[in-house]
Amino acid sequence: MTPTEVFERAGRTLFGDEYVAPLADFLGVEANTVDKWRNGRSRVPSEVWCDIFDAVGEQERAMGALRTELVALVGPRTDGAIDVDRQQMIAPGIFPAVTMDFALLRRFSRSRRRI
Question: I need a labelling partner for 49 at 20 to 30 A (CA). Which of 9, 66, 76, 114 fits?
Fold first, then answer.
């Protein structure tokens, strides 16, 4: 994959299809700057790659915690299917680990940024 493709994939994975504005907010830059990186008109600074790398790592940790909660709720998957009442899956408090604290991550990222 090209750097532009990796940037696009990371943005979509972290923030969804409409990722430009949320990623710009997260990185503390203007949306048009993210758009230039997305379209390959400007190189992504190494500090930004580090911030994206850290955000992906945080997302991995959050998903790992969610997986642990799901295994505790429904048991390990053995047949490729989870047999659980749909209402249990949407009950409040079942998925608290999915919510990333982007404000905390932003403060951490900005404290080490030099751009």
Answer: 66
Of 51, 18, 13, 20, whose CA–CA distance to 38 is shortest? 20
Structure token pair of residue 99: 């919510």
Cα 17 vs. chain centroid, distance in angstroms?
A: 12
Q: What angle do CA 32, 17, 54 make, to 5 degrees?
A: 75
The list of the chain residues with pLDDT below 50 reads 82-100, 114-115
**What is the distance between the alpha carbons of residues 22 and 32, in angstroms, rounded to a whole number?**
12
**Contact call for residues 59 and 34 (beta carbons, < 8 A):** no
| pTM listed for this prediction | 0.63
Instruction: Using DSSP, state whether 91 is helix, strand or coil.
Output: coil
State the helix-helix crossing angle for 46-74 and 20-27, rounded to 10 degrees.
110
57, two tokens: 């790592």
The pLDDT value given to residue 113: 52
Cα–Cα distance for residue pair 107/109, rounded to 1 Å:
5
